[in-house]
Amino acid sequence: MTNVTLFSQILNCLDRSLFTKTVEQYKTDKHNKGINSWTHLVTMLFSHLSKSQSIRETTNGLLSITGNLNHLGIQGKSPRKSSLSYINANRDWQMFRGYYYKLLEDFQSKGNFKRKKFKKINRKIYLLDSTIISVCLKVFDWAKYRQEKGAIKLHTMLDYDGCLPKYVYMTEAKQSDVKHAQYMLMPSKSVIVSDRGYQDFQMLHKLKQEDIIFVIMLKKSIKYEQVKELPLPETKDAHVIKDELIRLTEEDTSKLYPENLRRVVIYDVRNNREIEVITNNLTWTASTVSELYKQRWMIEIFFKELKQHLRIKSFIGTTENAMWIQIWTAMITLLILRYLREIAAYSWSLSNLIAFLRMNLFVKILLTEWLNNPFKAPEDFSINNRQEELF
Question: Is beta strand 240-248 parallel, antiparallel or unpaired with respect to 164-172?
Answer without folding.
Answer: unpaired
